[in-house]
Specification:
The complex is a heterodimer of chains A (360) and B (322). With 360 residues, chain A is of the alpha/beta class. Chain A has 15 helices and eight strands. In chain A, the strands form two sheets. Chain A has a four-stranded parallel beta sheet with strand order 2-1-3-4, with helices on both faces. Chain A has a four-stranded parallel beta sheet with strand order 6-5-7-8, with helices on both faces. Chain A is globular and about 65 Å long. Chain B starts with a strand and ends with a helix. The radius of gyration of chain B is 20 Å and the shape is globular. Chain B has two domains: 158 residues, Rossmann fold, CATH 3.40.50; 147 residues, 3-Layer(aba) Sandwich (Rossmann fold), CATH 3.40.50. In chain B, helix 12 links the parallel strand 8 and strand 9. In chain B, strands 1, 2, 3, 4 and 5 form a five-stranded mixed beta sheet that branches. Chain B has a four-stranded parallel beta sheet with strand order 7-6-8-9, sandwiched between helices. Chain B has 322 residues and is an alpha/beta fold. Classes of the chains: A alpha/beta (360), B alpha/beta (322). Chains A and B meet through helix 14 of A and helix 4, helix 5 and helix 12 of B.
Chain lengths: 360, 322
Amino acid sequence: MKVAFPYMGDIQLVLEPILRKLGAEVIIPPEPNRETVAIGARLAPETICLPFKVTLGNILRALELGADTLVFVSGSWSCRFGYYGRLQADICQDLGYRFRWLELRRDRVGEIVKEVFQLSGGMPARALVRSVRAFRLGWFKATALEKTGELFRQVMPVAVEPAECIRLRKAFVQEIKQTDDVRKLVELRRMVKEEFSRVQRNGRKECLRVKLIGESYCTIEPFVNFDIITRLGEMGVWVEPFLTGPRWLGFHGFRLNRQEVWQVQQLAKDYWRYCVGGEDANSVGHLIMAAQSGYDGVIHIHPFACMPSTVVQPALFAASRDYNIPLLSISVDEHTGETGFLTRVEAFISLLERRRRNKL
Amino acid sequence: MRKIGIGRGLHSYHHFSLWRTFFTELGFEVVLSSQTDKEIVNRGVRLAPAELCLPVKVFLGQVEELLERAELVFIPRMVCRRLHRDFYFGCPKAIALPDLVRAIFGSKERFLELVIDQQVQADETGFVNCAQVLGISRARARAAFVQAIRAEAVAEQRLKQGANPADFWQGESVIFRERFEAKGTKIGVIGHPYLIYDEYISLSLLKILTELGVEPAVPFVTVEELEAEAGRGNALNWFYELELIARAQRLIREPGVKGLLLVSSFACGTAPVVNEVIRREIAEQAGLPMLTLLFDEHSGETGLRTRVESFVDLLGSARAKL
């Protein structure tokens, strides 16, 4: 069984070992690029959101590479995300590809369990041991990745040489990717702290802190948000996304960390009572949280015509007014140019700098 | 007598009789927003974020107008309905409508929210809670609800006989009351009622069709049909979109229907998915030609007329060939 799943930030670094340990062969499509988007945009319905187009281009590349089983995360709810799997499977079948597709959703857990069972040759004990090992490895990989990303975002804006941080992160991600040894991963997690603490600082005590909120794909996938975290890090701005790849998997895939989600939604209650998808309530809640913990500004990135993100915009602006925190809301689609995007972000950053100067 | 405003847009086309009766029974005067016109659209466009769909923008314009004429404005929250042992949701905009309106107008007291969410409560509870906000007792609210349900059943009977939902707005505005008897050529029109029955947004699409000598077929979809469609198992989990699919299923079986017109608005979130499903799974399999029309605040009537005309011509020539 050759499994493939759509690319999204660094989630494949966590999902790949899990699936591999469960006994499947994993095909990883190349990172999204201009070409994948072009293919996706040509085949997808015209006005559907950007993540659909990018992931469609992506799984088509995976099918070209010989994948025979596609895994989608899905769930039928009010957002279009719930229909990605179904439509994408239809489109790929029209192109003549033959494959099986597995939808990971709450009402189909039985199917997935059966699948794992079959991969282990139908032996329950083996399936159980394998799953425990797989998820244990996935967990340690995820935490190591999280630590690396966290330190990278934190240290980069105050480093003398931001390029050094980029290099360090790349090296660590590579190592995390290559090792399957849990002890090594624990060791890496420790080393990452040491290495980053050795990076030479430029002596500035405080840097601008910006929270990144928005639709999950746009927040996580650097190709779609033009790697805004690194770009702004180079300019000396600490950008903290409210969601990262491993955390997304943890929350949407395995429903971890419910406590935090509940707290965030509680904060958003005054502005947003029903969660309709696209991380709407989370965005509002994290905006308020950012204001309360002293962030300088918030950037909201969402795909053009994303339903939940569009309706949540007025609520976000209302909250930003009430809590007195600047907000920039940008929508992206396949026609968004990098220069235009970054110019808007840079203008926002200068505004934040001036605001902070005036405050002091 | 206290006044309560109900916007003409969105789900009023589905539930106006129910809502009006409920509030009149409770002793309110129901104020209806004025007909959609340039003024209302401009107001909505000014208020709303640019990427919202036109019907929601129009609704916001109506709400602003109602705030000038009524003390309270009624905003429904259509979350979830149960059909065939499964749950069907409203689109995100329908679910978040009260939050959206509150955030835009910055006031909390002047809006009355009704929650329809059959996942957690029966419709009756929703209405009773809504009335309690107004300080009305449970018993009285229940009695009003019973009356409202009756009124809705009567309205449904009339809709089944081919009435137009816009007929229920205080007896005015009828788009094609005299049923047009064409020479057997029908075009099925599939789209949300708040789009196709609003003459201003849809640029009198139905009128244009009748002028071209074609009968627009817009059958009313009953709850039984929706249940049947839901029972097929592979339907979409959007309630009002399920209606479109059921209507498409019915139209391909209706004798005399030569083509389908799919009407949606630009930036309508559900349209790309629903249109794709209707095109792939219904129209192509039935071998019916289909034209998709997108409306936004910049649509012009000439362009629309040209496209519809050429579609009708094409249907004519396809028939001549056979």
